[in-house]
Design a protein that fits this description.
Number of helices: 26
Order of helices and strands: HHEEHHHHHHHHHHHHHHHHHHHHHHHH
Radius of gyration: 29 Å
Helix content: over 70%
Number of strands: 2
Number of domains: 2
Shape: globular
Oligomer: single chain
């Protein structure tokens, strides 16, 4: 396929958002800012239709392609092109991002109505959406890196959208700087790839590495490249030790939280590892490292989520935990299962965040904590039903979609043995506990410690209810696409050059992995049993012993403070950041002003003195000039004669 043969549906993935942003910025923002969302919503509809069309094309086995359409830079024997890669893994995630992102856009139109920054919000929000589309369809590391950075910039602008809030500005800066740490790792990996392999194109890199593997050689730079890519993914997808920016990112508007946690930024790190899997799998210990990071992060974040009070923070730590599950599946070599849970998670997590937005909207606050809610089931009936469906899906309860993806990962980890096998049931228990704790504290009970706001909550309007209803349908039913997803990922390689025979189990791994066929009897598995136990424990500690959540905090303030500080990790990170800032101040004050400035100033004076000394030899006398010319001529003549 040539650039001219690229289907229009692929071009529209970019034409529609760019056009909508230009119309919104140059036409509607100055003339009718409250209409800025209309071309953007139309763009969302077009992108969703195109994404599903491309997915169907790939699923049929006739639509995968990898095409360069513009040469951006060339030097010596290597070049960097811009192009499109449409394959099984890419279109699977793209379809989820398009649909979930579009529904969040609709919700945002109702949520942000009346906000002074309505127009600015939608323009940056859609730029965020566009950056993720570019990231998912890039066919080389340079292009992916550019969209990766665009995602980071857009997230910074959205987290700090409410500029008047100091907490929002600080959260945006924390997210930006933490992701720069990871992005620096990505940049170093990219430079090492260019220096050592002279290509940035995914497939060409696969072939180069495959040819070396076929001769029993692992490129010497590959372990370091793999480690740097994992480091970048840990920052973007909020894995330990770089997860701490994500909970604070809740300072942005709720639609930002939903899009970031479900369909864009945090999934970018997982997708980077999926794209880089042939590189990573070539180094034996790297997949084990990814699995270990994912398992630890999943357990650690689930424990923290079970202790938080702010509703959006509970969901933020939940996101960290479920991203750990995806990393665990990926590290165990099951790429299709990681993609499957990424898709399922996108539906139920987006709906849960938007439900939290409805809860806050009910009392006219961006977010609320467990002290400000309680017994709201009748006041918010639609939000309540959606929350129940998504909570069951997140906990992995049959027959919701989360059961099919999450329980499969848990069982896969348990069968693998080792300490990860022991972590698997803890993940099931913890996720069920924290989500049902949140549900029961919010919608059930009549506790004297709650309802401090003394407000009368009310259900949101159709613009904020209809999108969560559609997302809830996905959270309930998308689990049944498992067989189709297996075929999509496998078929997605047809039509693409698939490397060398020596790359068996590396490049072709996604096509060889199929999702397990789960049945009703699997609901009685270890994962399902631990999820049920977690839900029952949450019920007991919120409904039977209703004051437990407040009693233990009052009795053990030190423990409460420890959990608030993420068991000391946030304190350690804050101390490290303060140390770096102090070192920078000392460097600026002592070295810059005391040493460097003095060196520059004294250097100027020294050069002035030297120039004065040399000036004595240049008085403009013709006799002196003639003598110097004669001396120079004699010197040259002597050298020529010798």
């Amino acid at each position: 396929m040539t650039a001219a043969q690229i289907p229009m549906t692929a071009w529209l993935l970019f034409i529609a958002p760019v056009t909508a942003i230009l119309i919104g910025f140059f036409v509607l923002r100055p003339l009718k800012p409250e209409w800025t969302h209309w071309p953007i919503l139309i763009s969302c509809a077009i992108v969703t239709l195109c994404a599903f069309s491309l997915t169907a094309r790939v699923y049929s086995g006739r639509g995968s392609f990898d095409v360069n359409f513009w040469r951006w830079a060339a030097a010596g024997d290597w070049a960097i092109d811009f192009g499109l890669r449409i394959d099984g893994p890419g279109t699977a995630v793209l379809s989820m991002v398009a649909l979930v992102g579009s529904l969040i856009h609709v919700y945002a139109a109702g949520y942000m109505e009346g906000d002074p920054g309505f127009s600015r919000f939608f323009l940056v929000f859609h730029l965020f959406f566009l950056a993720m589309i570019g990231l998912l369809t890039a066919n080389n590391y340079v292009q992916l890196y550019l969209f990766w950075e665009m995602v980071g910039v857009a997230s910074y602008l959205l987290i700090g959208f409410w500029l008047h809030k100091e907490s929002a500005r600080k959260a945006a800066l924390k997210a930006f700087l933490t992701n720069r740490v990871g992005d620096f790792g990505f940049l170093l990996a990219l430079l090492l790839i260019l220096v050592n392999f002279h290509v940035a194109h995914f497939h060409l890199l696969y072939v180069v590495i495959g040819s070396q593997l076929a001769h029993g050689q692992i490129p010497s730079s590959l372990p370091l490249i793999g480690l740097l890519l994992i480091w970048a993914a840990c920052a973007k997808s909020a894995q330990f030790p770089l997860y701490f920016w994500l909970p604070d990112a809740m300072e942005g508007p709720t639609p930002t939280s939903a899009l970031m946690h479900a369909a864009t930024m945090v999934t970018a790190g997982v997708f980077l590892l999926i794209r880089s899997w042939p590189l990573i799998a070539a180094v034996p210990y790297l997949p084990h490292l990814i699995a270990g990071i994912g398992a630890f992060t999943a357990v650690f974040a689930a424990l923290l989520a079970a202790t938080k009070r702010d509703l959006k923070r509970i969901l933020a730590y939940s996101t960290v935990s479920h991203l750990g599950l995806m990393m665990l599946a990926l590290g165990m070599g099951d790429i299709t299962l990681a993609i499957f849970h990424l898709i399922v998670h996108g539906f139920f997590k987006a709906a849960l965040f938007l439900c939290a937005g409805n809860i806050g909207h009910a009392v006219h606050k961006p977010t609320v904590d467990v002290d400000e809610v309680g017994g709201w089931a009748k006041a918010l009936p639609a939000t309540y039903v959606v929350f129940w469906i998504c909570a069951l899906s997140l906990a992995g309860i049959w027959p919701m979609a989360g059961f099919y993806s999450k329980d499969a990962i848990i069982d896969f980890a348990r069968e693998g043995g080792g300490w990860i096998a022991w972590a698997a049931p803890l993940i099931s228990f913890g996720s069920a506990f924290y989500i049902f704790r949140m549900l029961l504290l919010t919608f059930h009970g009549d506790r004297p410690e709650q309802n401090r706001l003394q407000k009368h909550p009310h259900e949101a309007g159709p613009m904020m209810v209809v999108p969560i209803a559609f997302l809830a349908v996905g959270a309930a039913l998308v689990g049944w696409i498992a067989p189709a997803l297996s075929r999509l990922v496998a078929t997605g390689w047809i039509g693409l050059p698939v490397g060398l025979a020596g790359m068996t189990g590396v490049l072709n791994l996604p096509g060889n992995v199929s999702l397990p066929a789960l049945s009703v009897r699997d609901m009685f598995s270890l994962g399902g049993g631990m999820a049920a136990l977690g839900a029952a424990s949450a019920y007991y500690l919120t409904m039977i012993d209703a004051g437990f959540d407040w009693r233990w905090r009052k009795a053990k303030p030190g423990t409460d403070a420890a959990f608030d500080a993420d068991l000391g990790w946030k304190t350690l990170v804050a101390a490290f950041a303060s140390g770096v800032a102090a070192f920078a101040r000392v460097t600026g004050r002592v070295f810059d002003k005391g040493v460097w400035d003095g060196l520059i100033e004294s250097g100027a004076e020294a050069f002035y003195d030297v120039s004065d000394g040399l000036a004595t030899f240049a008085q403009g006398r013709l006799n002196d000039a003639l003598w110097w010319m004669a001396a120079g001529a004699l010197l040259i003549l002597g050298m020529a004669i010798r």
